[in-house]
Amino acid sequence: MKINCIVIDDDPLATKVLGELIEKTSFLNLLRTYPSAKDAIFKKEEILQEVDLIFLDVEMPGMTGIEFLSAFEKHPFVIIVSSKENYAVDAFEFEVADYLTKPVSLPRFFKATDRIFNLMQEKQKKDTETAEDIFFKTDKGLIRLESDDVFYIEALENYIKVFTEGKIYVVHHTLKSIIEKLPQQYIRIHRSYIINVNRIHQIQNNIVVVLINDERKVIPVGKAYQKDFFDKLNIL
After folding, report:
1. What is the mean pLDDT of the chain?
2. Cα(156)–Cα(183) distance, rounded to whole angstroms?
3. d(Cα 18, Cα 12) in Å, to the nearest integer?
4. Does residue 127 have a pLDDT over 70?
5. What does the domain layout of the chain look like in residue ranges?
6. Domain 133-232 is classified in which CATH homologous superfamily?
7. Nearest to residue 50, comparing CAs of 177, 149, 147?
8. What is the DSSP track for 30-52?
């Protein structure tokens, strides 16, 4: 399992150090960095869809880390990384996962990120243990699909499309919220696509081919998702 993360910090040196720590952690994948919370907030929807973990500074010009968190009704896991300890009480009111003080040591970093990894594994296991049928909430009510009915799921502007053999369902969700509840046979392979591995017809380089009613659907595997995707395939 790969944990997609971002760093939000106005200090280039602190960002560089965190990047190096992330690189040393096998299950972390750094998607991007932001020099301020103000820059990151413009990517709020993108963050909600793609990011599992945010490394967040507190004191930044234009918008503090605490103000950034207050803009979310529900946010990904957050680890505060600050040079000061006096923001801890405010931070934990927003249910941050951990609070690290700069300079961050490697053992302390590993301890914090290992905890996130374990939490995500437990949640994934719990969500998929009994997941044979999938329920999707649409404008017309709940629909029930068997786990193999779905070929792939595509994200559009503010909704997703669920593709089955006979019908396409429109669901008001994000890919991130959906993938957390789907069985393990579903893998996110692109910022806009989740694929049902059982429905893959062919893989050509970084392209996945799905057949629906004998029609080929070509889906790209995004660069940020390639390693996790191919690691999960049973390649002989």
Report:
1. 91
2. 22
3. 10
4. no
5. 3-128, 133-232
6. LytTr DNA-binding domain (2.40.50.1020)
7. 177
8. EEEEES-HHHHHTTHHHHHHH-S
- CATH code for the domain defined by 3-128: 3.40.50.2300
CB-based contacts of 163, cutoff 8 Å, min separation 6 = 150, 151, 152, 153, 154, 212, 217
Least confident of 20-34, 96-110, 145-159: 145-159
Contacts of 102 (CB under 8 A, 6+ apart): 14, 81, 82, 83
Domains 3-128 and 133-232 equal at CATH topology level: no
Question: What is d(CA 164, CA 147) in angstroms, rounded to the nearest whole number?
Answer: 11
Tokens of 143: 């629909």
How many residues would you count in the chain? 236
pLDDT for position 205:
87
Closest CA to 47 of 55, 105, 80, 223: 55
- With 0-12 / 13-18 / 19 or more C-beta atoms within 10 angstroms meaning exposed / middle / buried, residue 140 is exposed
| Cα–Cα distance for residue pair 219/227, rounded to 1 Å | 16
Instruction: Check if the beta carbon of residue 207 is closer than 8 Å to that of residue 189.
Output: no
Residue 75 corresponds to which tokens in the numbers above?
A: 């946010």
Count CB neighbours of 72 within 10 A. 15
pLDDT digits 0-9 by tens, 203-213? 998 999 999 98
